[in-house]
Automatic annotation (TrEMBL):
InterPro entries: PPM-type-like_dom_sf, PPM-type_phosphatase-like_dom, PPTC7. GO terms for cellular component: chloroplast. GO terms for molecular function: metal ion binding; protein serine/threonine phosphatase activity. It comes from Miscanthus lutarioriparius. Residues 1-26, 298-321 are annotated as: Disordered. It catalyses: O-phospho-L-threonyl-[protein] + H2O = L-threonyl-[protein] + phosphate; O-phospho-L-seryl-[protein] + H2O = L-seryl-[protein] + phosphate. This is Protein phosphatase. SMART domains: PP2C_SIG, PP2Cc. The keyword Glycosyltransferase does not apply.
Amino acid sequence: MAASTASRLSPPRFRAPSPSLHPPIRRSRFSPVRVAKLEAVLSIGTHLIPHPRKAASGGEDAFFANSDAGGVFAIADGVSGWAEKDVNPALFSRELMRNSSNFLNDEEVSRDPQILLRKAHAATSSVGSATVIIAMLEKTGTLKIASVGDCGLKVIRKGQVMFSISPQEHYFDCPYQISSEAVGQTYQDALVCSVNLMEGDIIVSGSDGLFDNIFDQEIVSIISESPGVHEAAKALAELARKHSVDVTFDSPYSMEARSRGFDVPWWKKILGAKLIGGKMDDITVIVAQVKTVVVPEDEGGDTEEQKGNEQGAAAVVASAE
């Protein structure tokens, strides 16, 4: 279309800008100006193998994992002794994990794993008890942990275990446990700690069925050889399962037992025998890798660029099914 008469006859109001040596800054189609920041997130892989004699029922471990808002995961190991009282030990651990997942976005929880444990425990009506660990990654890269009992967690950085939590126990093979009974422990007895993580750090967490049957150097080796967190979790669980049924394997569990004074009878010692072997148990493994995402500050947390594949939706696992 031809220009109007006024536009053709009127002198220009502004001088045309001189050509720039630098190309113009390309702006996003979403907003005139964008200021980006880095946030930490977890890419999470999981695997559960039940006790050989409990495979049909799915075992007594339960867990959940969620990569939203940085990332959170939890494991509960049902105490098998309740079976002697005709109580299914899996019911308590499964309900505890369901409640933990349900309260995750509760305003009172406010990204505090100890408060999440308190609310989940208070809402659990099943009879039983369980050891439990809950870990939450802040967007700043701080991992916050609340643990009751002997579920474990280790952080691997550049091929070295740089952080590990210690188990809580009354005596050997009798860990602290969250319980439906007043004699059990509560969220106030939890080991609460935090650790600052870096991009690329690997978190390995699991029930005692993992750490009773596998050494740190084996964990580091499998992590270094695995292409991703899902493959690593599966490989760790399968190796722990293999060791657990090997009566000739001198496992971390058997070594700890001997250090606490448990061993074969004296007459077997004379013949050179010693207490060895793996420990058959439910085995739950969670492997998580710290990654970063670029988030524009004026987008309220929407992700613009993401490194790696994250597991976005919450997953509550009640059994090996």
